Amino acid sequence: MFRSKEFSSVLALVLALQLSGQGKMATFQLEKTVLLVLLLVQVCAIHAVSADSDSLEKYVDSLPEKNELTSTPNKHSTIFKDAEKLVKEDTNGTTAPNTTVTVVTSAATEATSKSHQLEEKHSSFTIFFILLVLAFCIITTHLLIITKFHYLPESVAVVIVGGIIGGVIKILSSHDLVDLHEEEAFPPTIFFLVILPPIIFESGYNLHKGNFFANFGTILIFAVFGTLISACVVGGGIYLLGVAKVAYPLDLLESFAFGSLISAVDPVATLAIFQALDVDAILYMLVFGESVLNDAVSIVLTNTILAMRRPEMADVSGAVAFFHGVGHFCLMFAASSAIGIASAVLSSVTFKLFDLRKTPSLEIALMLIFSYIPYGLAEGVGLSGIMAVLFAGIVMSHYTHRNLSPITQITVQQTFRTVAFMAETCVFAYLGMSIFSMYHHVKVSFVLWAIALCLVGRALNIFPLSFMANKFRIHKITPKQQFIMWFSGLRGAIAFALSLHIDMEKEKRQVLVTATLIIVLFTLLFLGGGTMPLMTILNRKKTRTKKKKELNLSKTKEMGDTVETTSEHTEAEEIRTVKPHVSKFMSLDQKYLIPWLTRIITAQEVREGQRQMATLTDKWYKEVSQRSTTEESEEDDLQTLISGNSEP
Amino acid sequence: MFRSKEFSSVLALVLALQLSGQGKMATFQLEKTVLLVLLLVQVCAIHAVSADSDSLEKYVDSLPEKNELTSTPNKHSTIFKDAEKLVKEDTNGTTAPNTTVTVVTSAATEATSKSHQLEEKHSSFTIFFILLVLAFCIITTHLLIITKFHYLPESVAVVIVGGIIGGVIKILSSHDLVDLHEEEAFPPTIFFLVILPPIIFESGYNLHKGNFFANFGTILIFAVFGTLISACVVGGGIYLLGVAKVAYPLDLLESFAFGSLISAVDPVATLAIFQALDVDAILYMLVFGESVLNDAVSIVLTNTILAMRRPEMADVSGAVAFFHGVGHFCLMFAASSAIGIASAVLSSVTFKLFDLRKTPSLEIALMLIFSYIPYGLAEGVGLSGIMAVLFAGIVMSHYTHRNLSPITQITVQQTFRTVAFMAETCVFAYLGMSIFSMYHHVKVSFVLWAIALCLVGRALNIFPLSFMANKFRIHKITPKQQFIMWFSGLRGAIAFALSLHIDMEKEKRQVLVTATLIIVLFTLLFLGGGTMPLMTILNRKKTRTKKKKELNLSKTKEMGDTVETTSEHTEAEEIRTVKPHVSKFMSLDQKYLIPWLTRIITAQEVREGQRQMATLTDKWYKEVSQRSTTEESEEDDLQTLISGNSEP
């Protein structure tokens, strides 16, 4: 419809796609028109001003020293880093190293100033583009929820939207109509520094701690040994197939690096499928716990294997390297979680010591800072940030959360959820877009074998380990549950980001990145999309003793319905089934840790909290009623509600 | 106390400084000890693992190709950008430009992979350090509020904390104990892309629209002509002093660029002082409105003047250049605010069209996206993002806010406030730290003359323009108010960021950056710190007709006390004093725009909103009571409260 008007811009096209997909949303023709007109205004603005900006760019191009200027700061920052290292190595020197560094820095800043303006403009537009894609994905998610089309998981829908946007950009840019190079927009560094921490923190923060720790042993077995088995199966299989010249050949360490990066089940993708399924809480927790912990395992494993490729490791034997790897892994695991727990305890003590309840802005700000600090510290010192932030989330929701004012509890939880949701959506949209935007190097046999090995690896992980775990468990894992666990081994963004991260020769890397992308998309689309039919089949066989719960693949709806905090009820219920050490910890926790780390809330404070919330709620009613008065609708009804509320 | 234990780490030292400053916070000795122990654990972790990471870095250094590898991606990205431009210029070509770009990109990604790991580690640590500084500043702010030490504005306190941290780092790094190069951490690009948008959006969102638009004419006069006068006085003065060889010589355009960047009164600094003073609403709005709008004026003016230095502008006469500048400015102003308003209206229509109330995560996410989109778009096409985001904030708080669910209204407002607060704190802390961390080139006479010219420029701006404005105003600006307006001309972060941004030869740039920093600190510390005594003197003279309001320089406390939305009451009150066109717009707004852009809230929806809020509040009470039950305190009291609330 827009092509006929000669506005062949990507925005308009994508919008048209979106609107045509609405279907069930009818009637609001007026608003729809406004939406279109306004988007056209924005598109026109881009076109109109791009003439101006083009002239600027041409001017910059015409400058002969332009290339030098753009590259100079980079060179200087290299020099700067070298200088930094020189300073570091010269730890015993008595010369003042500052002068060198300062001079180099100032030279660097000097040269940077010119390119800042252009860089800023470029970054702004990139951010604008990302936000626009995000907005489309959010609306798609919303439409999925309201049309109750539950057979398509949200994550898959977002991947598809991303794919469509990527495809449209590809078509338009091949016809030279736009030049959005979104491949630049999402380097792995951004993924690991900005996207991943909120997702993991949020899953830690909203974790059902009772079930998680009651099953901690089993989860740990699946996460650590399961991932190891899967990594060995995939890595070994890929290596042997390469030697046998059946698939693309990789050397031993490369094979195992690939095996370990592809072995992690993705929490984002898995949660999206599992959170709403009619499975019992234990099975849900097993799959969720495994997916959260094995990210860390996979990241650590991949990095450990890649670290073995260093020259100084070349002369050690396989067994030594293996034990070195195990030691490294254990150290990582322990130190990272220690940082996370220490930082969470610090946050709890800080909130107990400084009463920030009167100033919600300060409280929320400090809470946000404490949610990121463990990641920054752990990554900064070379440990696993994901592990640190997961444990920080778990511990903070148990202690720190209790020290917050009610308004902050709500805001912080909503904010964490929203940020995690946005980060997840970003990831899936990018996965979809990268189908078209990246340069791919497809080795069909390699990809097919890798998929087969992934499925076999997960089977060899789930079934034997379940068998073993059942020997020790009171609550056994049934064969059907095992089958679901095997089937739901979705790979996701973390595997993809890790594959972008690995350092190999160009061609091999491209093959691996492409293979990873295809495997991720395969598991998302087929295993993720196939979960619903599978559940239907399994449910048909099952005698329906429980009250029928509507199957729902929307994670967001589930999250949005009620804002649930960590309820103590269910934790208490679980105590009888848990092992003695867990219940021991829980009584210890009730006796010493909770009183010591959390603030005692006096009746006075409860009253203040109630007043604070009542003020907020009342204000909303008053605003609504004022508007309704002018609109002359249901006035009396509202007045009753307000008076009913303001006298609690 | 830590030095004796040989832990001469910066973290511990800063902590010690913080704790010794607590003074009035006593008794919690146990928690304090835990705080120290935990921080020591973190410090130890850094020390322990830094050995490991050092070896990694040494290994990387030992690689001969390391330097090449680090610089290669940069070179490649330059090539990439060039390729991009080639593609752009070749708009009529029939060759498929994608292939080139893709090949170059993949080559670039190939080479980047190795340096990613180190870059990530470095960035993580930088983020950790920034967050740590922020946390200290937040606690300082909190201590300022609870100790009721109102004579020190929060912004000044944060600058001082920043200065202390910067000084400690300087001392430690000169003794070669740490190497935190925070000068890298805050490039102007980050300031303009991350720090500034939330501050300006928040001030637009929480603006008192009635007073703002009632005084819009006067505000615009101060913001545009006032800033122009000040820029001319400072610029002309600096140029003439340079010609007369009294101060550091700058050429004409450089002088005026400096004049315009230093002329903008900073909203962040001004708000921190003004928001809690016992001045009437009109004066407050005049100063606030001026400070918000003249940022945009100053940024546009500076960029326009710098644009005139381009070669193609060299052959035009002064008058043509002047009119070109005026035209450019008007276009900027109109187009930027149009983008902001269009985007806000789009957001309002989107929220009306798609009912996201059931899924707060989606709602909040979309709201956050819409708050940034105008900035990204405007900056991306070369317009003023600050202007766009200001108007978007104003319009969104008027229309979009009404379409949100109560929980989202609260969360979004708290989140905007918190993010803006964190951004402001970042800015002031950085200003403080840059006293020590940057390389300074102080020209004493230049700085002194510049300060004098700033004061004179502001006097020549405020007094004549107030005289002129009073001719048209019903509500006159009294001489005392004019004096306060003159005195409160604080310069802030925007001026400093602009000075880092300008492109000049190295020495001149350093002189200007240093001068700007000193002027900013001078106005913050002396004018900002002197406001309280000045107000006391003025208040002593004044007959105390009004009920005495406690003087309070804490902006955060003011913000935190009540969460205020845009109340209709005061807007209605103002109608009688406003000019006819404003009241005309307001009736138009009530009749057409509000019904058309906002959703009609049915009694059903109000009940749902009430239920949603009640659920949240109840849950909090239940949690609190459960804890209290185990602690056996005030049980009955709480039970009464809960039952009282759950039956509204």
UniProtKB/TrEMBL annotation, chains A, B:
Q: Where, by residue number, does the polypeptide cross the bilayer? A: 33-51, 125-145, 151-173, 185-201, 213-244, 282-307, 319-344, 364-397, 418-440, 446-463, 483-502, 514-538
Localization recorded for this chain is:
Golgi apparatus membrane
Domain Cation/H+ exchanger transmembrane, by residue range, is 139-535
Q: Which GO terms describe its molecular function?
A: potassium:proton antiporter activity; sodium:proton antiporter activity
User: Which InterPro entries does the protein's record reference?
Assistant: Cation/H_exchanger_CPA1 (IPR018422), Cation/H_exchanger_TM (IPR006153), NaH_exchanger (IPR004709)
Q: What Gene Ontology cellular-component terms does the record carry? A: Golgi membrane
A GO BP entry: regulation of intracellular pH
Sorted alphabetically, the keyword list is: Antiport, Golgi apparatus, Ion transport, Membrane, Sodium, Sodium transport, Transmembrane, Transmembrane helix, Transport
Q: How would you describe this protein's topology in the membrane?
A: Multi-pass membrane protein
Q: Where is this region: Disordered?
A: 623-648
Major place of residence: Golgi
The family note in this entry says: Belongs to the monovalent cation:proton antiporter 1 (CPA1) transporter (TC 2.A.36) family.
Name used for this protein in its record: Sodium/hydrogen exchanger
Instruction: Please give the organism.
Output: Bugula neritina (Brown bryozoan)
